[in-house]
Design a protein that fits this description.
The chain has 14 helices and eleven strands. By secondary structure, it is an alpha/beta fold. The relative contact order is 0.11. Bound molecules: flavin mononucleotide (FMN).
């Protein structure tokens, strides 16, 4: 564990590794586990501003959190300052520690409509959003951005706008919108942004191993590192442990604990289905017969699923 800390507004953040928000992944079961393993902030999956206002039941699960999990930042996306403000005010009522605005999502249905990474093309709108939200809310407002679009690499400008208009932290995915989630992150561009800002900067993109964490911090001076996909097969990365350091007994224990949280949170049917992608991650390093893997990952009965998992770990765990 690390003794690093930094401030988001007045909020003291202990640690410098943070689970990245991921739609469909960073639900309460996974977030709470990662937080216990050392993730310093719990970011929810993003929720759409209009859903907060018009379909609150639809986002209820996504913004659920427990006291133990704090600090919790709820991430919201939208393309209108008014709707984002109304949504943020409503979200504030649920008691999070911060509100994060998504300015990095590259998906056509979001960026193409001017939200997510689409906001990076409209810096004046970002001024309006940051200004109104930071004035009207009593919580830190943060943002997650990219380096920009290929024809408009304005991550520096955007992060300066976020700081200038009261933002308390910026997380920078060090890729362009066009790169999506692939390709080499540009650490020197990230370093330039970090050096230009006084508010904390989280660096994000491509971190899979403890050595990647250290390289990102050394190269960029970022206050913290945000880890997305690398955490799915290895939530222990938040304790600065690479996956091959984790023995089968420990993998089995966390897998079953994660499953229990998923079952209790979503109910037995959905809980198992939504857990499958994590099970695939936990099992990914093992040389598992494809038919057996498929059988485990398509099992619909939680009790039978557990039996199969325990059987597998019993076989490979000998000598552990
Ligand atoms: C399946 C998936 C869902 C994602 N959902 C979100 C999201 O809701 N909000 C967000 O800011 N970024 C989202 N991202 C982007 C991640 O937060 C992160 O920036 C990206 O995965 C790069 O980090 P990594 O290389 O460590 O995975 C998502 C990424 C993936 C792969």
């Amino acid at each position: 564990m690390t003794d690093q800390q930094f401030l988001v507004g007045d909020l003291k953040i202990k640690g410098n590794l943070v689970l990245a928000p991921m739609d469909g992944y960073t639900d309460w079961p996974f977030r709470s586990l990662c937080r216990e393993l050392g993730s310093a902030i719990s970011y929810t999956e993003f929720v759409k501003a209009e859903d907060v206002l018009q379909r609150p039941h639809y986002i209820q699960n996504k913004i659920h959190f427990t006291e133990k999990e704090r600090p919790v930042f709820i991430q919201v996306y939208g393309n209108q300052a008014d709707a984002l403000l109304e949504a943020a005010l409503q979200l504030q009522e649920t008691g999070p520690d911060g509100i994060d605005i998504n300015m990095g999502c590259p998906n056509r249905s979001i960026a193409g409509r001017g939200a997510g990474a689409g906001l990076m093309r409209t810096p004046l709108k970002v001024v309006r959003i940051m200004k109104t939200l930071t004035r009207s809310l009593d919580l830190p407002i943060t943002a997650k951005i990219r380096l920009g679009w290929q024809d408009c690499q304005n991550g520096m400008l955007l992060s300066q706008i976020i700081e200038e208009y009261g933002g308390s932290l910026v997380a920078v995915h060090a890729r362009s919108k066009e790169q999506g989630h692939e390709g080499q992150p540009d650490l020197s561009a990230l370093a330039e942004i970090k050096q230009a800002l006084a508010i904390p900067v989280l660096g994000n993109g491509g971190v899979r191993r403890v050595s990647d964490i250290d390289a990102m911090i050394e190269t960029t001076g970022c206050d913290g590192v945000m880890i997305g996909r690398g955490a799915v097969a290895n939530p222990w990365i938040f304790s600065r442990r690479d996956r091959e350091e984790i023995g089968p007994a420990e993998v089995q224990e966390l897998l079953l604990e994660h499953l229990e949280r998923s079952l209790s949170f979503y109910g037995p049917e959905n809980g198992l289905v939504l857990f499958r992608k994590f099970a695939a991650g936990y099992l990914s390093p093992y040389d598992l017969d494809p038919n057996r893997r498929k059988k485990i990952l398509t099992e619909t009965d939680p009790a039978k699923f557990k039996l199969q998992v325990r059987g597998f770990f019993e076989e490979i765990g000998q000598g552990d």
